[in-house]
Amino acid sequence: MRVPNSVVLPVGTHVDCCRQEEVEEKRRDIMAKIAAMLAERKSNLAHFIDNLEGSEEPEFYMDQWERLKEMESCTLTILDLVAVNCTDHRDIKKLEATILEHVKNEELFPEVVRVLPPIYRQVEAAIVDIAQSEEMADHGMMDLQYLLSKLSQCDHLASLGRELLQDILRYLHRIGLVVWYEEIKHLESTVFLQPTFLITMFKVGMGIRTTLLCRVPALQ
């Protein structure tokens, strides 16, 4: 919702646990709830913006107004939900084909035909090598400046600058190869070369939080 021109493909799993009529019913219900959620978000943003514009001293809230207007301008395209049975390899292949079909749609992704400079692929390949090397820690975290120095050791990347690397990291972040939270001050100098580690860490964190919440009543 915060990324301009986002495209979302909802995926429903555990189809094998439902009857066919239930699958269609749940698909309609989920899509209706998504539509309602987006409508509520749009209404809430408009309400907040109106409140700021109608305040006695709106100039004091200019930063908030600009952020809200920016969020309001972010369009979100929701594609039809794809229902899959994760235990059936054919359904997984069907999902892959659906994703590929949407990605190739120039109306959804106008930049799909853009040709990347060769250095983007070179840096991507070098980062994959670094991430898979034995010296790489399991958490996959690496300081941005240290990553630049490692990449610069490659003969064909010796002239790689920090600004260009940041542009390439934004691209690699968008395609999911790395995770780089440049907008978060405490994380802007850290690149996660192993996104799967973050997923595992979040799962463990949520599990611990759930366990603690479950134990609170017993402590009272």
From TrEMBL:
<dbReference type="InterPro" id="IPR027417">
    <property type="entry name" value="P-loop_NTPase"/>
</dbReference>
<protein>
    <submittedName>
        <fullName>MFHA1 protein</fullName>
    </submittedName>
</protein>
